[in-house]
Amino acid sequence: MDISLPSFLAAIAVMAAPLVLAALGETLTEKAGVVNLSLDGTIVLSAMTGFVVASRSESLTLGFVAAALTGCAVAALLAVIGVWLNQSQVAAGFALTFLCRDLAYFLGSPYARQQGPQLATLPVPFFSDIPFFGKVLFSHSLIVYASFLAIPCCIYFLYHTRHGLLLRTAGENPEGCWARGINPQTVRIIATMTGGTLVGLAGAAFSLAVKPGWGQPQGCEGIGWIALALVIFGSWHPLRVVAGAYLFGMLQLLGIYFQDSFPTIPAQIFQVAPFPLMIFTLILIHLSSNRKNRITRLFSGNPPKWLGRAYRRS
Amino acid sequence: MIELTNIHKTFGKVHALTGVNLKAEAGTIHGIVGENGAGKSTLMKVLTGFIGRSGGEILFQGQKVRLDSPKDALRLGIGMLYQEPLDFPQLSVLDNFMAGRAVFAPVEARTELARLAATFGFTLHPDNRVEELTIGERQQLELLRLIGDGARLLILDEPTTGISKEQQDLLFTALGKLKTDGATILLVSHKLEEIDLLCDTVTVLRHGRVAATRQRPFDRDALLQAMFDSLPEPQAPPEPKRGGIPVLEFEKVTGSGGRSGLQKVSITIRAGEVVGLAGIDGSGQGIFLKIACGLVPPESGRILRFGAPLQGKAKETGRTTVFLPADRLGEGLFPGMTVREHHLLAAPGSALITSATGLTVSRRAIATHSIKGQPETAVEDLSGGNQQRLLLSFIPDGVRLILMENPTRGLDVHSAAWTWRHLHSRLHADGAIVFASPDLEELMSQASRIVVFYNGKIVLDTPTRATDYQRLSRAITGQIDPVGTC
Which of B147, B148, B142, B154 is nearest to B1 (CA)? Predict the structure, then answer.
């Protein structure tokens, strides 16, 4: 096995790509004040939809579009219940996560363990020849490039556009939003659906690229919860959230490497270990960042004031 | 500039506004005064489109306007500065300034903010987070934002509460400047000195109706008379008792909470006294009660209860002191639990709970306190009066200090009378009752001593017999020099 540094980093980039997309999607949603707990189920469902549509139509593009629409639709459902109808976002999210997962297993069962299309790597001409960085950044499939691009786009959108500002105001103080002539409900619904679209893409990134194929389990289960945890520990700042995603990708990869090195230890240990390790690491980071120095302050943040709270006009 | 004709607003059966007429010209400051609940805030919310009106016409610059949402109002150039700034604390000053604008242009907005701030002499750093600002600075930012967005009619709701003297001076200068520039300003206030200083015209609201409209110069006494109901002479207040042992002593106690917090308040309340706390909402009386019962720790100062310093532990309250909050269902009771379950909680006793436990207590309490309900009635199904009786029934024997907020809020005359008879009967020989009330009549008829709070300080402390309605209403609106620590 090739364990040179560039290939290790490149593997992390691939491993973390879906998580980056999902965590950014949830960051957008939560910045607008909505908690979308349906993440984990949505990823499984859109992984299934993406795989099935891509196999049937023999078009990877259609597969990704279908997965994105699935994510968007689930988020829309959550937005209707949790924002429009002012019901508990947490309860709706939980119900949806299990509904989506089981629906995926049920509807997807005829396609389990079948051969399907897979996104090919597409090295960027010229750039991929740059030593070190060429391997790490420019020798991937399109969805990995998309995960790279999503990071600056997300930051630019949130902090440097009018709509990004509106999104943040809706999560911070919907009443203030309303007083400025903007309907916070609309902002919240659109933000939730946009976030859901990214989560849907994350699902397809699994079934069509990172862990190609469909089955029960698919292998992407649990990632949604990690994405949710990342948003919290990342203090709702896209950069910190993404850093967490890459950290988790690294832990998962180390698990795979160690599995080969220590064949006597049950494989399950290596598969599960990243989850508790991740939570442990995040807690450590979180505790250390409470000490105020300039660098940690730069990325520190608090939850949006109205996170998870319904807004009813007086 | 703006003309309101026959404005009505109803919430269910409650008439918040009845036939309100108001006319304000460009280049003037128009004051709107009234007691708590007189309808000032409702009227302003109607004007900004925050809530719809039930009837009436609004003419803005001669045109009939609908005003269904804040968006309508903003488009017309109507902007409001809310008492609690409706801003985004975790966002930067610049983001707050830009939020809601149609065009996102940070560079231009930064220049504009700096220019506007300089015009009015405000100092605002565009990159600071708003949560780091004082209320006064947040207000300045909101004002600049509204002006930047082109507001020609500015509504200010109690703009001077919680801001420093310097900020107040800056604000008043700014308002004067805006007036000269031809803007219309509606100033909602309960401070008559501000009205005197700034306004050209004043409208007095009482119970949702216009009680008076006056032109400058104002006759303060006439305004006060219009603001408050005229009352019959108070029924003989309880005889003040002198020389009892101290029950509650505050020494230079400072605390935060409410609008103005509590600032270096010293007072001694003795056994046998029924003390009424008066003041506009949030002037310090609410936080005084919370600190006295140990719910909120003071920031500084010393508190003695029954001669012993207050430790701030839960168990020392309860047996000797009770606090009955104004928000009965929200703070006093557990909605969703039954009357019996509440008695179980209130009763000292064993860890084991059976269905029979508390039933006897509950039945007895229902009978002795004439609560219209059953032991298994959920508390939220009780009427306001019965909720208050239920709360009163929790007061254990031997309680020496009863602290209450608005004891008869929302009660009908009958329930209110019952509550007070009950309270006087519960007054311990070595204890005292301290209550806050917005109702002057209640204060005059039930308290033996009245303490008036204004901006977190005690401005008047007098035996009920030695004061009158006129003097109280003047003190409540801040027209007595602070006596400080008395």
Answer: B154
